[in-house]
Amino acid sequence: MENRCPVALDVTGADIHGEAAALRKQGPATQVELPGGVVVWSLNSHSVIKRVLSDPRVTKSARNHWPAFINGQIPPDWEMISWIAMDNMVTAYGKDHVRLRKLVGSAFTRRRTEAIKPRIVELTQGLIAALESVPAGEVVDLRERFAYPLPAMLVADLIGMSEDARAKTAKVIDMMVDTTVTPEQAQAVLAGWRGAMAELIAAKRREPAEDITSDLIAARDEDGSRLSEEELTDTIFAILGAGSETTINFFDNSITALLTHPEQRALVTSGQVSWDEVIDETLRVESPLAHLPLRYAVEDIELDGVTIPRGDAILVNYSAIGRDPEVHGDTAGNFDITRENKEHLSFGHGPHFCLGAGIARAVATIGLSTLFERFPGLSLAVEPGELRPLPTFIMNGHRTLPVRLG
Fold first, then answer.
1. How, if at all, do strands 7-8 and 29-33 pair?
2. What pLDDT is recorded for position 223?
3. Which UniProt keywords apply (predicted)?
């Protein structure tokens, strides 16, 4: 492999797709620089990423397999410390991962997905009713008024979090995915979400209810042992963050795509194409997650002529997967709900496949269909090029989504 200086990822997220295309041209695996000068491997092709996501030689546990973290080379105020300091189902390895995934998986059964649908309808209708009161012609930020609160309130319901607590924690999550934060802000983020989860857990210990937090507090594995306190705290936060942030950006991206492709919007609103097609095409061409920190090589891994040494950190470039021309041809970057192959990995692949995928699809279908049925004249209030991206290379969305309801 030709030696190259690592590319410093743009912390402002100004051009997620342009950056992904440039990295793909350098190869399926190339080194990039994260904030703080930390160098990791970016994986940029569909085939390599799919292989790595199910490779048992790749882990998400920094405390077990990242020497730079274990040896103290990664400072406690590193800008991305929250992503690697967690001890939960997402970052667990081996038997611990199986144990935690089994516990959490019991909360995301098909039965629970069906049971939650009336609540999704209720939340959606409440947000739609609030939008109906907007004076005709007034510009509305649909990200703030619909895309953000719908999944955020739903996940808060699932874990038993009050609306006040959710609103406070939402600010912490927003800061966590912001890759322009300072080391001082990163430390505050870590302390902030752990403090919020500790308060929630204490409340549920006093008054258990029908929610995931209460279930996990009471849970036992097959040996009869409890979750550790840190695993409990960090797992609940992972459910809150993963279940809300990605779905918020999905709504943002899918609404934007339909408003900028009126002929395809007509196909779905007329019933000629299903909402499932919209969901999968949006997840393919506009993955709500751009890059996910981090994974680690348990041993040397050879990937299409590139060797990732044992102990090196790996960054999966989700924004590159669905737009890979090797899979989707020359039109890979085009939004097209009629295309036959909509393969994507936005729900993950292998042992870390998203447990909440069923609920995410349900809220997406109900939310989008209700919104476009109620506001058939919905339109962007600015030119598409004026939409400003989120200040992050982790998530893919817009800071605001100004529309007129029609």
1. parallel
2. 52
3. Heme, Iron, Metal-binding, Monooxygenase, Oxidoreductase
pLDDT in the model for residue 104: 83
pLDDT at residue 176, rounded to an integer: 86
The secondary structure of residue 347, as a DSSP letter, is T
> 């994986």: which residue's tokens?
43
Query: Nearest CA to 103 among 208, 202, 223, 220?
Result: 220
Tokens read off for 58: 């790749």
**pLDDT at residue number 109:** 81
Q: What pLDDT score was predicted for residue 221?
A: 47
CA dist 92 and 165 (Å) reads 27
The DSSP H or E segment spanning 360 is helix 357-374
What DSSP element (H or E) covers 150? helix 149-159
Beta-bridge mates of residue 379: 404
Distance of alpha carbon 314 from alpha carbon 348, whole angstroms: 15
Separation CA 111–CA 107 (nearest Å) = 9
CB 374 within 8 Å of CB 397 = no
Q: Which residues contact 173 (CB under 8 A, 6 or more apart)?
A: 193, 240, 241, 244, 245
378 near 384, Cβ under 8 Å?
no
How is residue 336 written in tokens? 């097209």
Strand partners, 299: none
Helix (H, G, I), strand (E, B) or coil at 379: strand
Question: In the chain, what are the domains?
Answer: 7-404 (1.10.630.10)
Q: What angle do CA 99, 95, 60 make, to 5 degrees?
A: 95
pLDDT of res. 203: 92
Q: Which residues are paired to 58 by β-bridges?
A: 297
State how far the alpha carbon of 39 is from the alpha carbons of 44, 81, 212, 286, 347, in Å. 16, 15, 37, 26, 26
Q: With helix as H, strand as E and coil as C, how does 84-117 read?
A: HHCCCCCCCCCHHHHHHHHHHHCCCCHHHHHHHH
Helix axes 229-259, 357-374, angle to 10 degrees: 30
Q: Where are the alpha helices (DSSP H) in 160-274?
A: 163-177, 183-206, 212-218, 229-259, 262-269
* CA proximity to 49, closest of 403, 393, 322: 322
Is the previous residue joined to 283 through a cis bond, with omega within 30 degrees of 0?
Answer: no
Helices 110-132 & 149-159 angle (0-180, nearest 10): 140
Regions of the chain short of the pLDDT cut 50: 1-2, 221-222
